Amino acid sequence: MRIFEKKETASLKSPLTSSYYNEKGWERGGKIYEIFGINFYRKLLVWVGWEKLNKKSKPVEKNIKSLMNLHYQTKKSELGHIIILLIVFGFNVFTAFKFGVLKSLWLLGLNIVLNLYPIFLQRYNRPRIARAINLGTKSSRHTASIASQPVSR
């Protein structure tokens, strides 16, 4: 029964191929995210131990299949953070109207740190992962073509 359940949920897995996930012209090189302090945020994640915890629970092997899975996981993570960002923003607007803007600022700040910056981080990392995948596939094709050539003596 357990195998059946796993197979069923795997068939429901979305490939997340929307053009939304593609790098936009204004994102090229990640400069916009660097302006917004993404490198500081990355260091903060290392400092609080999140990076170590995340790598321990989801280690990334040094192969193309693993990188492709990581690329997909960035999309999945980004989608989850977008959904939570919008829900919390709705509560933020409600709190601002009901209790005042000043009392809702803490919620806005947490939403930025816990949801908006992780979205920025996924969008910053995904093109870098895609470049590594492209380099790896080119390298493996080049290695395969060399290996298939006859050795001349």
What are the main properties of this structure?
single chain; 153 residues; mainly alpha; 76% helix; 0% strand; disordered N terminus
Spatial extent as radius of gyration: 21 Å
Number of DSSP strand runs: 0
Number of helices: 6
Order of helices and strands: HHHHHH
Measured by DSSP, the beta-strand proportion falls in under 5%
**Helix content bin:** over 70%
> What class do helices, strands and sheet pairing give?
mainly alpha
Shape: elongated
Largest beta-sheet characterization: none
Q: What number is the mean pLDDT?
A: 84
Low-pLDDT residue spans: 1-10, 143-153
Q: Quote the distance from N terminus to C terminus.
A: 59 Å
Describe the structure.
- With 153 residues, the chain is mainly α.
- The protein is 76% helix and 0% strand.
- The protein has six helices and no strands.
What is this structure, in a nutshell?
This protein has six helices and no strands.
Helix and strand topology:
Layout: H1 2-11, H2 31-35, H3 38-47, H4 50-57, H5 64-99, H6 101-148
Helix pairs in contact: 5-6
